[in-house]
Amino acid sequence: MNLPVHTERLTKRYGGLTAVQDLDLTVRAGEVYGFLGPNGAGKTTTLRMLLGLVRPTSGTVRLLGRPPGAGRLGGVGALIEGPAFYPYLSGRDNLRVLARYAGVGADRVSLVLDLVDLTERAGDRYAGYSLGMKQRLGVAAALLKDPRLLILDEPTNGLDPAGMADMRTLIRRLGAGGCTVLVSSHLLGEVEQVCDRVGVISRGRLIAEGSVADLRGATGLRVLADPLEVAAARVGALVGEERVRVVDGGLDLSIEPDRAAWLNAELVDAGVAVRELRPRERDLEQVFFDLIEKGTADVA
Amino acid sequence: MSRSFRAETVKLVRRPASWLLLAITLVLSLIFTYVFPYASIAGGTTGPNADRTLPMLLPDRLVGNSLGGLPVFLGSIVLILGVLTVGGEYGWGTWKTVLSQGPSRLEVYAGKLLTLAAAALVVVLAVFAVGAVSSALIAVAESQPVHWPSAGDLLTGIGAGWLMATMWAMLGAVLAVALRAVALPVGLGLVWMLAVQNLLAAIAAPLLDWVAQLQKGLPGPNAGSLAAALGAPGDTPGVAASVGGGQAALVVAGYLIAFAAVGGLLLQRRDIG
Predict the structure, then answer these.
(1) What ipTM was estimated for this complex?
(2) CB pairs < 8 Å spanning A and B
(3) A116: domain CATH number?
(4) Quick one: closest CA in B to A99, which residue?
(5) Is residue A299 part of a domain?
């Protein structure tokens, strides 16, 4: 089976600087994969290697089962490191030029302009576009070939909140339609909302990979109840006092989240009014920084 | 490659700078080849090119007059066109946009070179057309007979002009690839063509025999020799018969191929930033 994206020990060095090191990245067919990392972590260099724009120092890359570059990007659409177009052409004419390179019909131009909601301004010169419009044109260009694999590098850069929401909707729609999407970002919330799986890169190394829920980890339960003291005593007696902490007017419990129904019944039996009972998740941002810190420490 | 050629042609034709360069080429050609010399003849004044006589401006001298500017001044403008066509992709960061659509680097590069070669032909044909109209008007105004060069001479002249113009365009292309920019290649290219070549010819070559010999292998003097062999006025900057016309044509063609090949090799081997 040809994986949409598969790299083995992918490495890129610039002189003494290692931008990407021994990266094993696998994106499965039909998933939306988030490539997460801070600025300078090696995301864009990796994506450039995937597309054959940058040659790896060592390691291998396969896109849709083929090595990249040299005219082997059929079925692959990409927006890398911000949009770049010809300023003297209109948005529509820019796409027409790119459609010629791609060997696709002019009918795709109108279609992708509609998809990114840029039809009304398609006749304006690119030089007059706002950052958000440029970004949307970049996504439109990436969609020209009706790709099976879409690679988007920070696609929401420059978009306003409504534009960001539209972009997330578009990515989710593409993913639901069977298109494999690899989207890089340094925005945790963005990745969390659209991605099936996430890979975290730091200093050129993949330091974690899994679903957002896996990375976040469900570490316990959060309980809001009255009276709190009674609830704390009852839960402490049930699961052990060392697993109970009173935090911000509620209880943080270090127990399996699937024991929520049992715990609720026990508290109600004890005459406690349970106002809220939910899995207590680690803050994703904290998870991210913990991973980055751990990755940095491992490299050091 | 035909897809890339069509895409590059659209980009070149729709780019305002292309038309500006063509307009400058034609205006310079018209003014310095016909207007100033004719005004000098008509007014009896002296100065550069004032020793040109009326017969030198008539239609039978069309080939030489049309080629005279290509070794230096018009060649410089074509060099700028070459830099803009290739270097613009670096300046705007559009290499990644184009290559992400799937064509190989060499496919895109070949499309650019073919487009430049076609543009060079258009420039040369336009210079010949402006020259034809100007010389015919002068002949009519001075009640001189209108004798045109033979079709063979015209074709040879256009071919030689295309060879020179395309070589300079390829030099612009290879400079753009080597320096991955627009401004610096334009600057260096113009310094070479307008300053270094003239300094070598006017100062160094008369003093040092090895420089004089070296000149015979450089692109500018060979373009000048080719133009001279086909009748370009000897008082035009850069026009001098330092080698025979046949040898000059071969050397110019060699440079054309070498510039194109080196640019392709560099583009193929380097990362796209």
Answers:
(1) 0.89
(2) 95
(3) 3.40.50.300
(4) B101
(5) no
A99 lies in the same domain as A45: yes
Q: Determine, yes or no, domain membership for A74.
A: yes
A74 interfacial to chain B (CB closer than 8 Å)? yes
Answer yes or no: is A26 within a domain: yes
- Is residue B144 exposed (0-12), middle (13-18) or buried (19+ Cβ within 10 Å)? middle
The whole-angstrom separation of Cα B2 and Cα B8 is 10
A10 to each of A26, A39, A248, how far by Cα in Å?
12, 19, 46
Chain A residues in contact with B6 by the CB 8 A cut-off are 100
Q: Do A130 and A249 fall into the same domain?
A: no
Helix (H, G, I), strand (E, B) or coil at B221: helix
Residue in chain A closest to B7 (alpha carbons) equals: A97
Domain that holds residue A85: 5-214
- Mean local confidence (pLDDT), A161-179: 87
Mark yes or no for CB contact B101/A70 under 8 Å. Answer: no
Distance from CA of B1 to the nearest CA of A (A): 9
Verify that A97 and A177 share a domain, yes or no.
Answer: yes
User: Are A241 and A170 part of one and the same domain?
Assistant: no
Per-residue pLDDT reduced to its tens digit, B103-138: 999 999 999 999 999 999 999 999 999 999 999 999
pLDDT of residue A160: 85
Quick: pLDDT tens for A52-74. Answer: 999 999 999 999 888 876 567 78
**Rounded to 5 degrees, what are φ and ψ at A250?**
-145, -175
| Interface with A, mutate which of B84, B101, B108, B114 (most A CBs under 10 A) | B101
Residues A177 and A248 in one domain: no
- Residue in A with minimal Cα distance to B106: A70
Decide if A131 is inside a domain: yes
Please tell me whether residues A87 and A21 are part of one structural domain: yes
A109 shares its domain with A13: yes
What is the spatial distance between Cα B134 and Cα A275, in angstroms, rounded to a whole number? 95
Domain count within chain A: 2
Nearest by CB to residue B103, choosing from A71, A89, A93, is A71
Tell me how close the Cα of B5 comes to any Cα of chain A, in angstroms. 9
Q: Is the pLDDT of residue A142 over 70?
A: yes
Tokens of B56: 């030198």
Q: Are residues A19 and A125 in the same domain?
A: yes
Q: Angle, to 10 degrees, between the axis of helix B16-30 and the axis of helix B105-141? A: 30
Which residues of chain A neighbour B94 with C-beta distances below 8 Å? 84-86
